[in-house]
Every structure is written in structure tokens, then in C-alpha cells.
Amino acid sequence: MQLKDDSEPKWEAELDYETFFRRQLDGLKDEGRYRVFANLERHRGDFPRATRRSDGAAKPVTVWCSNDYLGMGQHPTVLNAMHEALDRCGAGAGGTRNISGTNVYHVALEEELADLHAKEDALLFTSGYVSNWAALGTLAAKLPNAVILSDELNHASMIEGMRHSRAEKRIWRHNDVAHLDQLLSELEPGRPKIVAFESVYSMDGDIAPIADICDVAEKHGALTYLDEVHAVGLYGPRGGGVAEREGLMDRLTVIEGTLGKAFGVMGGYIAASKALCDFVRSFASGFIFTTALPPAVAAGACASIRHLKVSEMERARHQERVAKVRAKLDAIGIPHLPNPSHIVPVMVKDAVKCKQLSDILLDSCGIYIQPINYPTVPKGTERLRITPSPLHSDEDIDHLVGSLEMLWRQCALARAVA
Length: 418
Known about the structure:
Elements: H1 17-30, E1 40-42, E2 49-54, E3 57-63, H2 76-89, H3 97-101, H4 104-116, E4 121-125, H5 128-142, E5 147-151, H6 156-165, E6 168-172, H7 177-185, E7 193-198, H8 210-219, E8 223-227, H9 242-245, E9 254-258, E10 268-272, H10 274-283, H11 285-288, H12 295-310, H13 313-332, E11 344-347, H14 351-365, E12 367-368, E13 371-372, E14 383-386, H15 394-410
Parallel strand pairs: 3-12, 5-6, 5-7, 7-8, 8-9
Antiparallel strand pairs: 1-2, 2-3, 4-10, 9-10, 11-14, 13-14
């Protein structure tokens, strides 16, 4: 069997699956979009340091692209809680939440999450991806003749939930509230509507106009579904996210979040009314048929949330570190997207060069920043997505910026225009 050299694969004679797989992978490599995993060994209590293992060698690296935004995955309070729960309950949950898998730590965590977002209830999932897919998909599928109004830059997990629901979907231009209003105005007044959007968009780092979106949704009788995965723990006086910071949590129907980023563990959740959470719990296959989170994970997440509810130190230091990185990049003309969040996208705008820069930083400078290419971002907007943490030192920042300066000079890359 051979494949014809056309843009679309065509089969001749007997199928040769392996040839097809290899050719598709070779195409990714030629475009600079093939993903290579860095084999990292994190060190307890020493974030953002890690050891990179490659070809039998072990080299120290500083991680600059972690979603463990505050380093809570290494915090003693979190680790102690996990050890205690592991010693008390053992490793796994033992089943789905419905069949023997609900543990006291799951119940306590859901109570903490409901309190964090000032909602009646919360519901745990195994990841933020699953919580979006299951919750948004279930709501849209079960509400009769529902239509989803989706921001065009919503995360893949939200899009997958919408597809799974088979509900009608209308896409509004990113953060364009007037366009959202127009699309809602075209729908029958009594029809169920869900406005789905994010607070912090993780690739560009911009923030949604939540109050304006709520105004328009309320005007048209629509539910609001807000993804706060890149904001919980980081914004608001107790880490409740951008909606808490802006005093808007009571106006949102559903707040969805993750335990795997700023809280430093893993898992996802929704916070909403008791009836809505119970509805999703009772109908969402992604919840019903999934083994529950290990009790130790739930205990660690609970400890992280409790700590960040009362400690402002991590958030203040985080914002100061972000500002320092931005200022130093500006001083030498390294182009990065301006935004009001903690995400610093350094723009390369070429997939092959972006991968090359990432490789040089890792191999020669001991700096790990994963290249971000299509389909995560549109072609021509490839970037190095930098996420400073409270634990990056002044020396770390100077080394990062100095290394980028060297590479920009050696590779003759475009500088930002002041």
C-alpha cells in the first residue's frame, strides 16, 4: 500500500496505518508544531527549580511556564494535608462518587469551593477540562431548545462540551459585548440561553468585561457560565477570581474553576445553586461514570484554598514579579502582548523559530519555556508564554531577560517599537 501525495490522504490497496501515522507526524515536525515533552523532576520545596532528564543526562533548569502559578504545589501546608489524608485513608477513592467513592475530603472541598465563590453548592470533577465538558454540555443538552452564546476564544474544553450537547451555538466576537447583545436580540425571548466565556484568557492574557456581559445576559434572560480557571487563587481578596475582585460573583449563574493551576493540585469544579449542581451531578455522564479524585488530592486542594483565602502575600508577590518581568522586557524591546493579567506572551510569530528558541533556552541556558504553536494559538501568533511566580528571584529574572536579549540579537528577531 502507498499513500498518494495529495493534501488529503487517499488509500491504495491494503491499508498501511503505520505509514499514515508517521507521515502525519513528519508534517508536524516540518511545520515546527511537533510537541516534545520535557522530562522534569520537580524538587519538593524548591519550585521553580527542577531537574531535566534527557538522553541519560540530568541538568538543572528553572521553569518559567508552569501553571502552578503561586507554587502552591510545593507549599508545606498542602503537602502536610496530603500526607495526613494518605495516611488516614489510603491512596484511591475506591469508586465513583455515587458508588463508594465519596470521601469526607470531597465533601469538605466542595464546601470550601462553595464558600469561596459565595454560592450555595459546588461539584468536583477530575479536571477543569472535564468540568467544562460535563457541566456545560449537560446544561445545554438538557435545557429544552437551548442555545449557547460562546466567546470566539473560549477554551477547547468548553467547545467540546458545546459540541457534545448538540445544542445550537452562536459565536460572538472576542469580548465584544455589543455583538453578544446583537446575537441575543435575534433569539426568541423565552428560549433558554447560556452565555459562556472566560475571565482570563490564557494565551493572550486579556480579561473579559464581566460586568458588561452580565448586563447583556440579564437583559435577555440568559444564564451566565464563567470559566475562571486562570484566575482562581490569583485575583480577589480571597482568591475567588476576577469576579470576586470586581464584586460580581452573585450575578453569575455558574463559576467554573480548576484545582490544578493556582491551587497547585488537580481537579476541576463548578460552583452554583444547589439545584443546578444537583442537576449536573444527576445527569452529567462525565461526572457519574468517573472515579472520584483520590482523598489526598482533595485534602491538598482544600488546604490550598483555605490558605489562599486568608493569605494575600502570594498574590501580592506574584503581581510584583510579573510587573518586574514586563518592565525588563520593555527596557530591551522584547515584544510581548500588553495585558492586565499575570500571563506574559513573548511574541515570536514563527512556529519553527519559536521551537528553536525554546530548545536553545532549555539546552544552553537552563530555562524551560514551552513553545506555544497552532492549534493552541492561530498560525502566525506563535509565542513563548512566560508565567512568573512569587518564587522566581531577581537573579532568575535577570537570567531570563539576558538570555532572551542574547537570542533576539543572535537570531535577528524583530524588537518592540517604543
